[in-house]
Amino acid sequence: MAITLARTVIGALFLVCLYALAGARPEPPDLESWLSGSSTAYHSPALLAAIRET
Length: 54
Prior knowledge:
about 55 residues
């Protein structure tokens, strides 16, 4: 049980760090284009963009 908890916590920290390195910030969804079917409501950030630019 402790191994499962440790893997879950480490995985969650990894994903939070990956998201932070992307430089992503919360943004409201674009509901108009999503409802019209022309685009997605939320555009995914480029992962690791903060370190790719260096």
